[in-house]
Structures are given as structure tokens and as C-alpha cells.
Amino acid sequence: MTKPRIALFIGILCISIFPVIVRMNLTSGLISAFYRMAIATAIILPFALYTKKLKLESIKMLLPIMVCGILFASDIAVWNISIQNSTATQATLLTNLSPIWVGVFSLIFLNFRPRRSFWLGTVIALIGMTVFVGVDTILNLQLDFAFFLGILSGVLYALYILVSKTVLEKLEVITFITYSMIFSTLFLFIINVVFGEQFFGFSNVAWVSLLIQGIVCQLIAWLLISYSTQNMRATRVSLSLLSQAIFATILAAIFLNEKISVIQMVGSVIILAGIATTFYEKNSIENL
């Protein structure tokens, strides 16, 4: 297994902790999203300044980086609002349609034709996701405001993966992540002010959870995922991110005593089979 793939695997494990912490309801979803970004930014910014990683060849690069930061922050905000207005299962399912959008947008905007293995893997993985969440959940989806927010979340996620892939071809990971998270933090601060969220008054346990989200779920996770995005096809990265639903379920079983059903286990195997399909190459010399 190559370094980018190992980094992607560990990164997915790190972001899988986030839904488990959110389920504890120690803070609101929007506040947790803000502190997740703010804490990570507060840690990486001094490091980037000290190592002189904030230098840009052109000030024009700030625009695409800002777009990435806003796309990422918007995805988190929209996903959380979707959960608040429907269910976590529905919101997660709709958000995880992002691999389809990555493939479609790659074809339309980047003139990149995803391989057959990607589309086959996507179909298999989505079948697995359907089994994982249950057919009843699919049949009971309501075409309401929350439904379209869930769809929007998947679109924003896909756009972030694609735009960040383009930007990372020109920047180092540390440089990109630092600037991107600064813009995300500022954007989420404004969102929380608009929604009237309280920034203080949490329990000690809540603050510990926020630290974990900032350090593990954001800083470590997205440094690793960005490195993978820089060195792998965006279509593969987006589809691989579906596995976070599996890891989140396992972590919830360990830390929240939630039971894993046989259906979920079957769905997990199908999802992993779909992801594995995208890594199949007829020619072993082909690039990642």
C-alpha cells in the first residue's frame, strides 16, 4: 500500500470520530463545526509562520483557496442544519452522494473522464450504502427543505474535493490547509453569529470534545486527506470517504454502546467492495 493510500485510510479514521462526538450532544452542531476549524487553525498557523509556509507565488492564489475554505465550511454548516431538520441517517445518505457529483463535475468542468472502475465502484458502494442505512430509510425520504440541504451538502463536498485537487497541484499541503482553514473559520464564525449560537459556557467534557474535533478530526485528518488528494485521483478519494460511515458506526458501538446489526455489516462489506473496485487496475504500472 502506497503512502497516499495509507494517509487516506488514517485520515478517514480520524474524521470518523466526528459523528460520534456530535451524537453526544455536548454542543450544537454549528458551534462544534466552528471550534473544529478554529482550534485547528490556532495550532497550524504559528507552525506555518515559523516554517515560512505562508508564502504564495501569487496573491491571486488566495481566491481559489478562499473558495475551498468557504466550500468546506459551507458543507459542514449545511450538513449540520440538514441533520437538525431531518435525521442524521438521511443527511448522511444524501451527503454521501458526493462521489457521483465528483464524477459528473470532473467530466463537465475538468474534461476528465472517470474510469469505468470508478462508476462500477460507485454503483456498488451506493448499493452498500442503501443496505447499510436500510431500504425503509430510502423509501421514506421526504422532498422537503432538509432533503435539498442534504443534496446541497453532497454537492459542496464534491466541489471542495475537485477545487482543492486543482489548488494542491500548485501549493504545499501545509500552505493550502492553513489558508483554507483561516477562511473556513471566519466563515463559520459569521454563520454562528447569524444563527445566534453561544460561543462559551460549555462543560469541561464539551471543551475536551472540541479539542479532539479540532486536533484529530480536522487538523490531523485533513492534512492526511489533503496529502492523499494531492497524490491520488479525486474520484478515488471521494469514493473512499464513504467508508467513514462504517468506521463511525464501529466507533459508536465502542464508545456509545450502539449495536451493529447484521444488515449494517452486510452493507459495510458491499461499500468496501465498491471502494476496492476503484483501485483495481488492469495495468499495474498505471498511476494512482
TrEMBL record:
Keyword Transcription on entry: no
GO cellular component: membrane
Chief place of localization: membrane
Topology term for the membrane: Multi-pass membrane protein
UniProt KW keywords: Membrane, Transmembrane, Transmembrane helix
Residue span, EamA domain: 6-132, 146-279
Residue stretches spanning the membrane: 7-26, 32-50, 62-81, 93-112, 119-139, 145-163, 175-195, 207-225, 237-256, 262-280
Listed InterPro entries: AA-Vitamin_Transporters (IPR050638), EamA_dom (IPR000620), EmrE-like (IPR037185)
Intracellular or extracellular location(s): Membrane
Family note: Belongs to the EamA transporter family.
PANTHER family on file: EAMA DOMAIN-CONTAINING PROTEIN, INNER MEMBRANE TRANSPORTER
Name listed for the protein in its UniProt record: DMT family transporter
Organism whose genome encodes this protein: Kaistella carnis
